[in-house]
């Protein structure tokens, strides 16, 4: 079952695929909703609590992604390491993945990460160092620590992507599975 993430002081929903501000260049969701499988929702709550202790919050770019949208993204990107093959399902269509960044609760400003969300470049990798500022490297490490301490795992090519491990047994969901109507 998919559970909505609610915007609050420590969570900003900036669902990029419901806007033109994404690598496809057009909305692929009809509405800006962030949904997660129940287990992923609980794990995100643990990460958000840890972030609040540090005076930080999360800006959410994407969560559950219907398999139909996964196919649109697959077709739109040339470097296939940045989007899971829809034939294999992936983690977003199972509701166990998040694309996110950190922001400072006091200022509301996002922490510098060295590249933007969905930057299809080797600089987006967790392990990238050359070409990144020490501040960006530190902020990525902070995001990695907060998320992995709460049970998430990272995806090496994308500093913004985290998913729950061992979710391959969960069903791949479509737009018809979205509570309240399709995304």
From TrEMBL:
Residues at the active site: 158
Positions of the record's site feature: Transition state stabilizer: 65
InterPro entries recorded: A_A_dipeptidase, Zn_M74/Hedgehog-like
Family according to the record: Belongs to the peptidase M15D family.
This protein's record includes keyword Metal-binding: yes
Enzyme Commission code: 3.4.13.22
Entry-linked CDD domains: D-Ala-D-Ala_dipeptidase_Aad (cd14840)
Record protein name field: D-alanyl-D-alanine dipeptidase
NCBIfam families linked to this entry: PRK10178.1
Reactions performed catalytically: D-alanyl-D-alanine + H2O = 2 D-alanine
Main function: Catalyzes hydrolysis of the D-alanyl-D-alanine dipeptide.
Cofactor(s) the record lists: Zn(2+)
GO process terms (BP): cell wall organization; proteolysis
UniProt-recorded Gene Ontology molecular function terms: D-Ala-D-Ala dipeptidase activity; metallopeptidase activity; zinc ion binding
HAMAP family for this protein: A_A_dipeptidase
CC cofactor note: Binds 1 zinc ion per subunit.
List of residues binding Zn(2+): 92, 99, 161
């Amino acid at each position: 079952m998919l559970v909505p993430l609610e915007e609050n002081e420590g969570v900003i929903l900036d669902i990029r695929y419901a806007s033109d501000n994404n690598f496809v260049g057009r909305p692929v969701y009809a509405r800006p909703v962030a949904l997660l499988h129940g287990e992923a929702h609980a794990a995100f709550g643990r990460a958000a609590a840890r972030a609040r202790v540090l005076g930080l919050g999360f800006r959410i770019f994407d969560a559950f992604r219907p398999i139909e949208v996964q196919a649109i993204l697959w077709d739109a990107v040339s470097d296939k390491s940045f989007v899971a093959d829809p034939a294999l399902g992936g983690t977003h269509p199972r509701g166990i993945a998040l694309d996110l960044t950190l922001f400072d609760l006091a200022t509301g400003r996002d922490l510098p990460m060295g590249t933007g969300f969905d930057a299809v470049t080797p600089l987006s990798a967790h392990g990238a160092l050359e070409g990144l500022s020490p501040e960006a490297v530190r902020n990525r490490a902070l995001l990695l620590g907060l998320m992995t301490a709460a049970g998430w795992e990272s995806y090496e090519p994308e500093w913004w992507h985290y998913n729950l491990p061992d979710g391959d047994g969960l069903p791949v969901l479509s737009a018809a599975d979205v509570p309240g109507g399709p995304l």
